[in-house]
Amino acid sequence: MTLRVVVADDEAMVRAGLRLLIDGEPDLEVVGEAVDGEDAVRVAAETSPDVVLMDVRMPRMNGLDAARRLLADAPGTRVIVLTTFDEDEVVDEAMRRGVTGFLLKSSPPQDMVDAVRRAGAGQGVIDPSVVPGVIQRFGSVPAAPPRARELDLLTPRETDVLRMVGRGYSNAEIAAALFLGETTVKTHLGRVLDKLGLRDRPRAIAFAYESGLISPGDGVGPED
What we know:
The chain has ten helices and six strands; from the N terminus they run E-H-E-H-E-H-E-H-E-H-E-H-H-H-H-H. The chain folds into two domains: 3-131, Response regulator (Rossmann fold), CATH 3.40.50; 139-210, Winged helix-like DNA-binding domain superfamily/Winged helix DNA-binding domain (Arc Repressor Mutant, subunit A, Orthogonal Bundle), CATH 1.10.10.10. Helix 5 links the parallel strand 5 and strand 6 (125-126). It is globular and about 50 Å long. Strands 2-1-3-4-5-6 form a six-stranded parallel beta sheet, sandwiched between helices. It is 48% helix and 13% strand. Helix 7 (156-166) crosses helix 9 and helix 8 packs across helix 9 (182-196). It is an alpha/beta fold. The N and C termini lie far apart (43 Å). Residues 4-120 form the Response regulatory domain. It comes from Nocardioides mesophilus. This is Response regulator transcription factor. GO terms for molecular function: DNA binding. Keywords: DNA-binding, Phosphoprotein, Transcription, Transcription regulation.
């Protein structure tokens, strides 16, 4: 299946570069371009893309507001927010708006391509450089909240996986720590997301702290 992609950026050179990169992949196709946020909402409505690459800083309507409107109209569309800045408020706001991913424009081309494929498959994408900051901010509360009842829906192994995701472990690192195959870890994480109604990995990180599963100063590992 070919993933349909819309590129939204106010810089023509950036749009041209992304189109060249994406159209060079056999399973990806750029079906539309947008020059600002309002244009992005319109183009997405006309082309029904699977994934939208959305610049944050655009005229008329910024990328975060455009993502909110777009997702309200087409919740099945996946939006990856692109920015040249690693700004805490942009990352946090993007997550609150329901986007699937956050990438810096300085990301390697292959990472960009992989992100589009992962988003198209319903997986969350967050630039590795901003993960520590996300974890630090969600983990900076002075005391852990009461343990959420939703955690009772998880099996012990699923709970271990969620705990380690919350601490910033990759799937490969979780697999090594829990003596599991990486595919098994992906399966467990998928079940966690389904049971808890979470859209992607960034929201799983937030939930791990907000639910009281982990708190600042916890030790590293599958068990507390």
